[in-house]
From TrEMBL, chain A:
Signal peptide: none annotated. One of its GO terms (cellular component) is stereocilium. It comes from Betta splendens (Siamese fighting fish). The keyword Ribonucleoprotein does not apply. This is Calcium and integrin-binding family member 2.
UniProtKB/TrEMBL annotation, chain B:
Residues 1-179, 827-943 are annotated as: Disordered. It comes from Betta splendens. Keywords: Membrane, Transmembrane, Transmembrane helix. The keyword Zinc does not apply. One of its GO terms (cellular component) is plasma membrane. Residues 159-170 have a biased composition (Low complexity). The keyword Nucleotide-binding does not apply. The chain crosses the membrane at residues 286-311, 367-385, 459-480, 535-555, 677-695, 727-748, 784-808. Residues 16-28, 51-60 have a biased composition (Acidic residues). GO terms for biological process: detection of mechanical stimulus involved in sensory perception of sound; vestibular reflex. Residues 33-47, 87-99 have a biased composition (Basic residues). PANTHER family: TRANSMEMBRANE CHANNEL-LIKE PROTEIN 2-B, TRANSMEMBRANE CHANNEL-RELATED. This is Transmembrane channel-like protein.
């Protein structure tokens, strides 16, 4: 306990608990993981909110993310600069959204951001193609990719602008039976 | 605290005077001015000291001051500062000069802060002025957001304060009017609500933390102030208690999550094998808790009282091993067959005494035995149905399943839990194949030529499988019959195989048939998911058929035993009569002393209940043995062989033929379900069975999770966890119902053995309940009961229930219809809204949040600065974003450069976005509104 107390103050821990879906212990563990990623960069003592960011290359190599085809996008979406440099706050934020207890709406927002490769708040065909190629390791032929993307847009696009807005995406994803069970990472 | 705050507010109103109307302009505007205000501070400081009423500055200065004042209450992070100021203000009526002084102090304070912020920024970022400015912008932006929120609140507060405290005297401030209190309360509630839902907001962490702190401070500040005099203390106490309660709840929640067993283990498995395998373990854990409760009932209400308060072993015949068995009663082989001492122990029905009340507590054991036996079913039914309903709620309805085949595949097929390269590879493969399948489906939707062949094959496959099922059923029946024949023979003559034939054959069938079915199912060429359901259904039918065949054979056996028992009963009665007659004749007295016989020598009946219990016990044990051996040989042995023989083998064993075993989820789940069915069925006749099952589940949790991690590779065909869960539960429910039938049948129709078990001497088992009702409860209850069991009452009751079911069914159908309509309406509304939104700026809060979450490009180090080179899309989106989100932040004079650079892509915007109406409005609105403000801002000299 004595060791833990020095990392965060009680108020900080409470604040984190209010802001995330984690318990105290999990936040401490998250800090442990964060610290582990770059022991020379990250201080053990977080009581006075030190500013430090971990580059995406380190985060992406976490076992939880390593195999994920969207790992770079995940990290980028949660970083404030869009480059994937994560501060501890953003790091916690990421795993909070991806935790089991986060509500569907919240997850949908971030899922949208993750799949939005060119960051224009629309999922256009290029985004879908990239997503698909990541998912299948580019094993589909270009024609097949084309077909799937067209079909996807056809299915989910409600306003007929040939790209998916967030409303389209949300409408589609809230009905997906597996979204909640697959869009989460345990840490 | 509130009075201070209010005096402050009052002053600001007073001072601002004519500027009040300006307050109502858009919050962004205001915020922009505010932050500009900061930049211009040094200059203004001088101004304030020299003269406030300078003519040439009359346009500028008051506004600034007004801005300043407005801004001040907004800086709630700087509470101490605020307090200091308000303390100063409180003393007097705050004359103008004094206010100016205070203001100056504030300014310096503010400035210090800006410097601090800037200072922080400098070493981190480049030394370029531009970048520094950007950093400032970011900060400004952040504050702006929160200010926007705050402003609403403040405005409200300001309004109320200006209306009531127009005199702004200190004494008046002490007492708050009712309306204010209400408003405050409302705000406090609002803030509390915010704190509670903060984690659901799609904001950046930093912003969330800020908001939290702010809200907490606000609540802290005003909560105590609500209520006066007597009520005040109580209110404070209440607030404190709620705080404590929240803390306690949180701690308890933490504690609770820490108490969930095997969470880490399951997580580990989950991360390696995806959620489908984990779903089995979660099911196992669920089953374990269910059994733990059942065990609690069984052990606490039946076993323990009998052990503690009942007669000890050896006191009466049913608790004693018969003389002829005593020699071998302690042999291990006998004990393992549940013969000998274990047969006459508390594990089985026969051990329990029929004494109506036992011990000091007058515990009615027979009654409790019956009620627990039925209660187990009741409880299990309740739990299963409850969890099914919960799952159904969670899962939502799969009404429009066909609508989003590709979208769902695209966006939800990747399981983010996967953390193992092998699993990931498998997942890639399975996703690719599933896409290919869908593509093929899509392409082949129109043409299907070989339909006749396929139909023929499917019929053939079903025929084969039915044949298999029938064969296995017959085999079991045959074996059970043979087993009965063997049971008549002398035990020493039988081989081990002959003794355990039934269990052996059943386990063998369980092993052989599922793969056989799978091979046959290849013929059918179904979609994998449908095929899996068929497979599950078939295995289920097999198990069920086996179980029921076993049961029917058992009933034959029982009936035979009952006949046998009658003979023995007659014989014993006859012997007793003879003894009495002889005694009377010999001693010539009618007072016959009871016969003294060693309990081991008493002639006893076959006690069919114990026999049934033993059968179930044996079946369970052999099931466990087979399952564990299969894991050891089929998984572990195979893994070891593949792993080590691979060094000296002609082909690649790991990738080629034998490979490692997959974790067969469906088989395991079905095994678990059937095991549970056996427990439910057998628990009535063998109270120890539940305890055995607990041990089995416990060990299997560790054993299987080890085996999975050590020697299995993930399933190639991914069995979706979310939907199948209710499928498992449905199977469980079916099994529960099917195992309920025979037990209830025996309880209601069979007469219990005359010399063993808690119901001995009764005609029917349920007579225990009747006796209790008739004899031990007040007579009116028995009257009620006799009325209730009257057919005249039962028939209408059944009718009523049928009607109720019909009614509820139609109601639920109506709801479904309404649901569908609502969905349609929502769809339409959404479309409409979208159309509307296409022509307007985004009004949706979520959309705004989304925009806000776009990465802040200004934080990117210089390399990303070349916007001009990036594709047009990005540039435009950037332009748009900065227009939207940074309007408030970029009003500074120094920002000129940036404005210019922003202006550059602008001319292009209409061209690229011509067809897209969504982009236009921001451009339009931007024109007139912030124009003048920025103009002035530029006019000010840069720092």
């Amino acid at each position: 306990m004595g060791n833990k107390q020095t990392i965060f103050t009680d108020e900080q821990l409470d604040a984190y608990q209010d802001c995330t879906f984690f318990t105290r212990k999990e936040i401490l563990r998250l800090h442990g993981r964060y610290h582990e990623l770059a022991p020379h960069l990250v201080p053990m003592d977080y009581t006075n909110d030190p500013e430090c960011k971990i580059p995406p290359a380190l985060i992406v190599n976490m076992p939880e993310l390593k195999e994920n085809p969207f790992r770079n996008r995940i990290v980028e979406s949660f970083s404030e600069d869009g480059q994937g440099n994560l501060s501890f706050n953003e790091f916690v934020d990421m795993f909070s959204v991806l935790s089991e207890t986060a509500p569907r709406e919240l997850k949908a927002i971030y899922a949208f951001k993750i799949y939005d490769y060119n960051v224009d708040n629309y999922l256009c065909k290029e985004d879908l193609e990239k997503t698909l190629n990541k998912l299948t390791k580019e094993e589909l032929t270009p024609e097949e990719v084309e077909l799937v993307c067209e079909k996807t847009i056809e299915e989910a696009d409600l306003d007929g602008d040939n790209k998916l807005s967030f409303a389209d995406f949300e409408n589609m994803i809230t009905r997906a039976p597996d979204f909640l069970s697959t869009f989460h990472i345990r840490i | 605290m509130p009075p201070k705050k209010k005096s402050d507010l009052a002053i600001s109103v007073e001072e601002v005077g004519m500027e009040v109307d300006a307050t109502d302009s858009g919050s962004e505007d205001e915020a922009r001015r505010r932050s500009r205000n900061r930049r211009v501070k040094p200059q203004r400081k001088v101004k304030c000291v020299s003269d406030d009423d300078e003519d040439e500055e009359e346009d500028e200065a008051p506004r600034k001051r007004g801005r300043k004042k407005r801004a001040k209450p907004q800086d709630s992070d700087e509470d101490d500062e605020e307090d200091k100021r308000s303390v100063k203000n409180k003393g007097s009526k705050a004359p103008r000069s004094r206010a100016a002084k205070v203001e100056r102090e504030d300014d310096s304070e503010d400035e210090r802060e800006t410097k601090k912020k800037a200072g922080k920024a400098v070493p981190k970022k480049e030394k370029e002025e531009k970048n520094l400015e950007k950093k400032g912008n970011v900060k400004g932006k952040e504050e702006k957001e929160k200010d926007a929120e705050k402003n609403k609140k403040k405005k409200k507060g300001k309004l109320s304060s200006s209306s009531s405290d127009s005199s702004s005297s200190d004494s008046a401030e002490e007492s708050l009017s009712e309306g204010e209190i209400e408003a405050l309360k409302e705000q406090v509630e609002e803030k509390k609500q915010l704190i509670a839902t903060l984690r659901n907001k799609p904001w950046r962490m930093k912003r969330r933390l800020l908001m939290l702190k702010e809200a907490q401070d606000f609540v802290e500040k005003f909560e105590g102030a609500l209520g006066k005099g007597k009520g005040r203390k109580f209110y404070a106490f209440k607030v404190m208690m709620t705080k404590k309660l929240i803390k306690f709840k949180r701690d308890f929640e933490n504690f609770k999550t820490a108490c969930i067993p095997w969470e880490r283990k399951i997580k580990e498995v989950e991360s390696h094998f995806g959620s489908s395998v984990a779903s089995y373990f979660i099911f196992l854990r669920w089953m374990y808790t269910l059994n733990l409760v059942l065990f609690g009932f069984q052990f606490g209400l039946v076993v323990l009282p009998e052990i503690m308060m009942g007669l000890p072993y050896g006191s009466i015949p049913r608790k004693t091993v018969p003389r002829e068995e005593q020699a071998t009663a302690m042999d291990l082989s006998v004990l393992l067959d549940f013969g000998g001492y274990s047969q006459y122990s508390f594990l089985f029905y026969g051990y329990y005494n029929n004494e109506k009340m036992i011990g000091l507590l007058k515990f009615r054991l027979p009654l409790s035995y019956l009620l627990v036996g039925i209660g187990i079913f009741g409880y299990s039914l309740m739990v299963v149905i409850k969890s099914m309903a919960r799952n159904a709620n969670e899962g939502g309805d799969g009404s429009d399943e066909g609508d989003f085949i590709f979208s769902w595949k695209m966006f939800t097929s990747w399981d983010y839990l996967i953390g193992n390269p092998e699993t990931a590879d498998n997942k890639y493969a399975s996703i690719t194949t599933s896409f290919k399948e869908s593509i093929v489906d899509e392409q082949e939707n129109q043409k299907d030529e070989n339909i006749h062949l396929r139909r023929f094959l499917r019929v053939l496959a079903n025929f084969l499988i039915l044949w298999c099922l029938g064969g296995s059923g017959y085999l079991i029946y045959f074996v059970v019959k043979r087993g009965q024949m063997f049971a008549q023979m002398n035990k020493e003559d039988l081989t081990w195989f002959q003794k355990n034939e039934v269990e052996f054959v059943m386990s063998l069938l369980g092993l052989v048939c599922p793969p056989l079915f799978e091979t046959i199912a290849e013929l059918e060429d179904y979609h994998p998911r449908i095929a899996l359901k068929w497979q599950l259904g078939r295995i289920f039918a097999l198990f069920l058929g086996n179980l029921y065949t076993f049961l029917f054979a058992l009933f034959d056996d029982v009936n035979e035993k009952l006949q046998n028992e009658k003979l023995i009963k007659n014989a014993t009665e006859w012997a007793l009569q003879e003894y009495q007659a002889n005694y009377t004749a010999y001693f010539n007295t009618t007072a016959v002393p009871p016969q003294v016989v060693n309990p081991a020598d008493v002639i006893r009946g076959p006690c069919w209940e114990t026999a049934v219990g033993i059968e179930f016990m044996k079946l369970t044990v052999s099931d466990i043995q087979v399952a564990y051996l299969m894991i050891l040989i089929g998984d572990f042995g195979r893994a070891v062989l593949v792993r080590f023989l691979n060094y000296c083998w002609c082909w690649d064993l790991e990738a080629g033929f034998p490979s490692y075993a997959e974790f067969a989820i469906s088989d395991n789940v079905l095994g678990l379900v059937f095991n549970q069915g056996m427990i439910w069925m057998g628990a009535f006749y063998a109270p120890g069975l539940v305890g055995l099952n607990i041990l089995r589940l416990l060990s299997s949790m560790y054993y299987q999770s080890w085996a999975v991690m050590a020697c299995n590779i993930p399933h190639e065909r991914v069995f979706k966890a979310s939907r199948s869960n209710n499928f498992y539960m449905g199977l469980l429910l079916l099994v529960l119902f099917l195992s309920l039938l025979p037990v209830v049948y025996t309880i209601m129709t069979m007469s219990p053995s005359f010399d063993c078990g808690p119901f001995s001497g009764q005609d029917k088992m349920y007579n225990v309940v009747m006796d209790t009702i008739n004899q031990d409860l007040p007579s009116f209850i028995s009257n009620i009961f006799s009325y209730a069991t009257n057919p005249g009452v039962i028939m209408p009751a059944v009718l009523l229930m049928v009607l109720a079911i019909y009614y509820l069914n139609s109601v639920s159908k109506g709801y479904q219809q309404a649901n569908k309509d609502l969905k349609k309406k929502m769809q339409i509304a959404r479309d409409e809204e979208k159309n509307r939104r296409n022509n307007k700026d985004s009004t949706n809060q979520v959309m705004k949040d989304l925009e806000d979450l776009l990465p802040n490009k200004s934080l990117i180090p210089p390399p990303a600065e070349e916007e001009e080179e990036t594709p047009i899309d990005v540039v435009v989106s950037k332009g748009k974003k900065s227009l939207k989100t940074k309007q408030g932040a970029k009003q500074d004079g120094v920002n000129l450069e940036r404005d210019v650079s922003l202006a550059a892509p602008n001319p292009r915007a209409p061209v690229t976005h011509g067809p897209r109406p969504r982009e236009r409005p921001p451009v339009n609105t931007r024109g007139p509104l912030p124009g003048p403000g920025r103009g002035r801002g530029r006019g000010g000299p840069p720092r």
